[in-house]
Amino acid sequence: MIHIRNWFIVFMALWSASATIAAAADSAWSKEQQQAFGQSVTDFARSAGLLGYIYGMPLFEFSVAELRQTRGIAKDNSAPHGQFGYFNGGRLSDHTTTWFAVPNPDVLYASAWLYLKGQPYVIHVPPMDDIWYSVQFENYFSVDEAYISTRTIGQKGGDYLITDQEWQQPLPPGIAGQVRISTPRVWILTRIAATRDNEKERHLRYERRFQLLPLADYLKNPATAWDHPSPTQANLPALPEADYAMRETLDFFRIVNQHLRQIDIPAADQGLMAMFDAAGFGPRVVFDPAKLTPQVRAGLEQAVKEGYRYVDTMRAAPMSNDGSGWSVAPPSLGTFGQNYIMRALSVYGGLGANIPAEAIYPNAFSDSRGRLLTGDHDYTITFPAGQTPPGIAFWSITLMDVKTRFMVDNPIHRHHVGSTTQGLQANADGSLTIYISSREPKDSVRRANWLPSLPGIGIQLVCAFINRPKQPWPAPTSRRRCCVWSEPMTIPNTSIAGRVALITGGTSGIGEATVRNFVAHGAKVCFSGTRREAGEAIVRELTEQAGAGAVRFFRGDVADQAQVKALVKTTLDAFGRIDILFNNAGIACFGETPALAEEEWHRVFAVDLDAIFYACKEVIPLMRNQGGGVIINNASISGIGGDYAFSAYSAAKGGLINYTRSLALDGARDRIRVNAVCPGLIDTSIAHHSIEMPVLRQAFDAQIPLGRPGLAAEVAGLVRFLASDEAGYITGAIIPVDGGLTAWSGMPNMPRVLGMV
Fold it and tell me: What integer pLDDT is reported at residue 369 of this predicted model?
């Protein structure tokens, strides 16, 4: 067994080796290092590669998009560098649009690519009358660096300078403002509001009048600069050859490496670069798979496969959820900061994510009961009277196929409904209801407000609210009208992102591992413990990783009912709701019954059973009002079978197991799922002294089929799964996590005893 201390020595040795490699700009590990570290080299490369995959995802996606759009591969919106390409040839998007994920069918799109190093450009924005428009400038990290839009400058238009960070000269006469881009390459995306009735006129009169010119050409004669078409930008560094099939190959790191060597790395990201250099793809090395050692190559090959699976699985996970069923982007969308995961998932889902101040795009993948949307069922979306989005340019709701993220055709060719839809009818009370069904409604009001779906598909609903109102408004609710759910879905979603979890006993062991796991997967966590120093240290560390407001600590004793009430109130004050309750806190005492003091017996029951009752008594009413929730109890295999000299602990955990079953029955009608995990021998601080005793360790290893103690992180992973929607049909389950120990009947291992194995 490797001690924590020894792991630290290994890590420091690896870090030292990586620093040496980075300094030498050489990705090769010496034979001595390979012999010294063995599998650790592969593990290091895999870890660095996973970080690099998430970090480098926008560099890869932008590289492929730029190549496709400037070489004519993306036929519907291609144009050379320095010129605008018009999506769909200047038409609105519909079900035939299959090259641009989740398009907004209310806007005309155009885009252009520029290389700015030493080549400032001028963009001409025409006067836009009363038409909503937006010009978005994204750097190669998919960060929104500027907007010229109805929101920022109004309708007046003008000429604006686009430069890299190094350009420091005064603005020339006639230039209304400057846009600075922090990477050498920039993607410009324009949007103009339109309808089917006016799309052609707005394309010709407005969209085609957005133009680009090199600054040198503009200065020759600003008065007539826009009388001629934009020239093709020349003298550009070559883009790396790239296509989307490379997402799962080492070519991914080749493309990322080329861009890292050309980009000024943000100061906040510099700490990652030495690790990337050591793995062979950082900014101070040239990536060459042929020069990688087998260990490093194996680690990177693992990383690229795992990284792709992660982003592909998590793209449909909600960024945040306010309890309405709609996933709403967090305030940092489009700027991201150091939230590399959100950045990677955003760009993988599609380029051009707006900052919330410009537009909000809530998504829904499930109904109000948490069940995935399909075309085999009917749904309603209702805006209460007076609560359709106020003070914005327009809004709409679009239906997409969840697998392709494209619109689907239907008999009436209606792909979205919204403020521009003719003939929408309000209800008698002034509310507005949208009806989603694969069958045409017979009622005239429902037919007027009908958004058609198709049987057999999974549904993604996308709301578009352009120009966020100054005052918040209640989001619509999505409600299922049928009670039978017969179509199985295979869309993975183990995400708990945006959900609020309360975890007891979170300062060490399984509790601490679960706190860290939940925060890493985007949950908001309030955890309790009796050790203030340990709890505050965890908060400081996780706040640095996930940002302020991600985690709270409550010092208290869960055996005290008043303190449990205070813990619940602390969670509600911080986060407003509780979606997940993990009753983890527990203690044990050792000794046969005659030797046990009554105080010890009562204390074990107070922490291991009474405290769970107190927490559930407080949280269950909250979950009922919210429409559901998840409770997970940490029991033990000692509750499944007895243990020598642990009678109090076994009795309390046995009671907890049956309490879990009863809670599951009582909670089912309120969509509250309740399950218990039953750890066996887990390598935590509590069990560590037993594990380190040779005589006990040998006895444990002989009895556990997997031949080792479990890890706290392995239990935490199961807890996250049980808390997720993927476990939506699991309740009342008692799940051992014991390396196979409870699978054993107690009979001797006869093949081993008889020398057969």
Answer: 65
Looking at residue 356, its pLDDT comes to 83
Residue pair 392/467 in contact by the 8 Å Cβ criterion: yes
User: pTM of the full predicted structure?
Assistant: 0.60
Q: Look at the domain 82-227 and name its fold.
A: Immunoglobulin-like (2.60.40)
Q: 181: Cβ–Cβ under 8 A, 6 or more apart, which residues?
A: 116, 137, 139, 145, 162, 163, 164, 165
Q: Per-residue pLDDT tens for 93-108?
A: 998 887 777 889 999 9
Active site residues: 649
Average pLDDT (431-448) is 89
Which amino acid does the sequence have at 603? Answer: R
The overall average pLDDT reported for the chain is 84
566-587 pLDDT per residue, tens: 999 999 999 999 999 999 999 9
Chain centre distance of CA 208: 36
DSSP 4-17: HHHHHHHHHHHHHH
Q: Tell me, what DSSP letter sits at residue 241?
A: P
Closest to 2 measured CA to CA, from 709, 718, 580, 717 = 709
User: Which contiguous run of DSSP H or E holds residue 302?
Assistant: helix 294-314
Name the CA dihedral angle for 29, 31, 35, 36, rounded to a multiple of 10 degrees.
-60
Q: What is the dihedral of CA 338, 403, 85, 65, to 10 degrees?
A: 50
Domain boundaries, the chain: 4-62+244-312, 82-227, 340-480, 500-740
User: How far, in Å, are 1, 70, 600, 678, 709 from residue 687 at the CA level?
Assistant: 14, 61, 19, 15, 10
CATH no., domain 500-740: 3.40.50.720
Q: Which residues contact 529 (CB under 8 A, 6 or more apart)?
A: 504, 505, 506, 507, 508, 511, 535, 553, 554, 555, 585
Q: Which amino acid is at 459?
A: I
Distance of alpha carbon 700 from alpha carbon 741, whole angstroms: 10
**What is the CATH number assigned to the segment(s) 340-480?**
2.60.120.600
Here the tokens at position 25 are: 């700009």
Tens digits of residue pLDDT in 690-699:
656 666 666 7
pLDDT score at 704: 83
Do 405 and 459 touch, CB atoms closer than 8 A? no
Q: Which contiguous run of DSSP H or E holds residue 653?
A: helix 647-667
Q: What pLDDT score was predicted for residue 100?
A: 73
DSSP reduced 3-state for 85: strand
Question: Looking at residues 532-561, what average pLDDT do you find?
Answer: 91
Q: Which residues contact 461 (CB under 8 A, 6 or more apart)?
A: 363, 364, 365, 373, 381, 397, 398, 399, 400, 436, 478
pLDDT tens for each residue of 61-87: 999 999 999 988 776 778 999 999 999
pLDDT of residue 689: 56
